[in-house]
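Bit of a strange request maybe. I'm writing a small parser for structure token strings and I need a real example to test against, not something I typed by hand. Could someone generate the tokens for this chain?
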Amino acid sequence: MARILIVDDSLVARMSLKSCLPKEVDHEIAEGKDGAEGVALYQSFQPDVTFMDLTMPGMDGIAALAEIRAIDPAARVVILTADIQRRTIERVTELGAFAVVKKPPVKEVVQVELARALNAGASA
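Reply from user aminoacidic:
Good idea to test on real output. This should exercise your parser:
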């Protein structure tokens, strides 16, 4: 069982991502609706993996990613975004994103990245 944090301002997007997670494992899931809430939840919930949208009101995913990585340089944050511009992907990669997944999420891709992130955490 893993602790998974999902941060997205869209309830539908959060539900869609949750539907992509493996059903046979009972993961503990916390949800935030913007970057500031995501950072606060990261500190209190201490997730194994965080899935985060980039475009959110208030603190966006880029600022939240930077803050989370400043708090925990080993944080495994998977960015979910419809913005697949090379510059955006380079920026989040420079900030330490574990992976970038295109929205809408595809179940197989989400599960592969989740497993990769959990395995990276287990070997750390």
